[in-house]
Design goal:
Length: 345
Amino acid sequence: MPVTIWGATGYAGAELLRIIARHPRFEAVGAVSRSKAGTAVGAAHPHLRHVYNGMDFISPDDAVSLSPAVAFLALPHRASAQIAARLLEAGQKVVDLSADFRLKSAEEYKKWYGVEHPAPQYLAEAAYGLPELHRAEIAQARLVSGVGCNAAATITALLPVARAGAIEEARVECRVGSSESGAVADEGSAHSVRSRALRVVTPFVHRHAAEVTQELSLPLSSFTLGVTAVELVRGIQCLAHVTLKERLREADLWKLYRSAWNDEPFVSFTPAKPTHFRIPDPRFVLGSNRVLTGFMLAEDGRRMIAASAIDNLMKGAAGSAVQCANLMTGLPEICGLDMMPLYPA
């Protein structure tokens, strides 16, 4: 099945190219870049030169004439919606990795992003691109949104207790690697500024909180999401300090976690012992589409840490996007995504 990748020079675009290079049913027929059109794919992504030898980036105008089974959009917010609308009108299926179709109302989008939505007519039909929540909806969709890496980590950390209606309050911190900032460095993400720093980017309300509260039906008044930049390239460790509505036993929590995750192909639990492994570490999922989840319960039974670890470029972006595309095209969900994590990394 032919696929196109828009924004193919960025980190998420490169990950899509890497996954699709070994996908048994998808073939990249267009790596789209306005700035690099006519340049060899391997020049921008040296690690992929051997699999895309002879393939050049193409312009957006050339890409529009193609008829892919799925178009992946790894484009900036707002720009992505305009391209998505154009491709949908041409009858293409779209997986948009940006934030443009994650929220269900134009009012909420303006509240969080400060501008009018570029294509509000498509918000209602877009499926949120986390198959663990919306598998059946994604399979029938022609437009699927990106998940947002911090949102994906937070949702997977909190889902078992949120689904049970057990959360009174959740205070979340995501510890994130530098690749979350994208391939173009600025004064906040340049190595000389970021290296060896523990920099709190947003202490209370990161924009991804909008998706988390929407998808888990949590009131924003009882939820905060902060982001801290740490010494990683890839990876997110999500720590959610949760106050439970009522006292629970550890056995109760294990039952909730198993009920939520036992049948999910990409979600694993951390072991109960040794205790220093109970809080997931992203180094054990890097390079894969996997999620590690875990928890620790305080002696009072009311306070817990719900945690997760993902590779932000995989389960937080390109991996989830391919997982959704598999569902949209009737393929097995794990197709092309059975790669093992890299360790040590």
